[in-house]
Amino acid sequence: MTTTTPFRFGVVATPARTGTAWLDQVRHVERLGFDTLVAPDSIAHGLSVLPALAAAATVTSHLHLGTYVLANDFRHPVLVAKDAVALAVLSDGRFELGIGAGHPGTGPDNAMLGRTFDRPRVRVSRLAKSVRIIRRLLDGETVTTTGEHYATTDACVVPRDTDLPRVPLLIGAGGPRMITLAGQNADTVALGIPLDADDATAAALVKVLRDAATAAGRDAPLELNVNLMAVGDAVPRYLADRVDPTALAASGAVSVVTGPPQQMADQLRERRERLGISYLVVSEELMDAFTPVLRILSGE
């Protein structure tokens, strides 16, 4: 029997310039009924994501909070796990850890840290080691490991007598090696697909993902995530001069929904049926346009 993964909906929000504005934004996302608020990771731009999410936890009660996604090269995995524990405790189990190997735009941030931006194969190998360390630490293990990328000695990050809820792991993945890594390790996979990717492109990635999960002996269903780039005629400002939502919709792009709210809801139901995509996020600029769709599909 095929199990349908319930829909979830989130907002990708960049921490605002003031604390008051950020917390007002967080409260607004929760009031609208979204399931998650996730924030990107950058050194050059915006506020530091982990303290911003900690602050968000103090003014919400049921909104889940996550990173979308941490750049693995910025932090040692032991420190990532330690911060994840703190956020899981402070949010009463509402924190979701998203992590990835970094994209070309993070190269200048690596330079700020005095680190090279290595070729994809090296970054993916480093992430694979990092993910294994983080998962073991979050599961309460003490980890000693050596190797090319990281070394730890008797690392443990869960305080004694702490009843830590399980921290779900989201991995952002686009290429075959990243997709395979995500299939082996992630609870949620953020599909890093091109703006114009259609069903066939997405389906090919999903097959690699599910094959990797099966080969790893994983029984639990994977949650698949896509960041919607257009809701009707609305697109984020940074894409406004580069994206024609009508043309994308005509090409069958899975990162777009069009029409009135009921039609958009039907499109997402059909994609969940065909591809298994059940977790959709939109930028903060699109959340008001998407809210009517959320209200139709909430609970399905």
UniProtKB/TrEMBL annotation:
Domain of life: Bacteria
Gene3D superfamilies: Luciferase-like domain
Domain Luciferase-like: 14-221
A Pfam cross-reference name: Bac_luciferase
Protein name: TIGR03621 family F420-dependent LLM class oxidoreductase
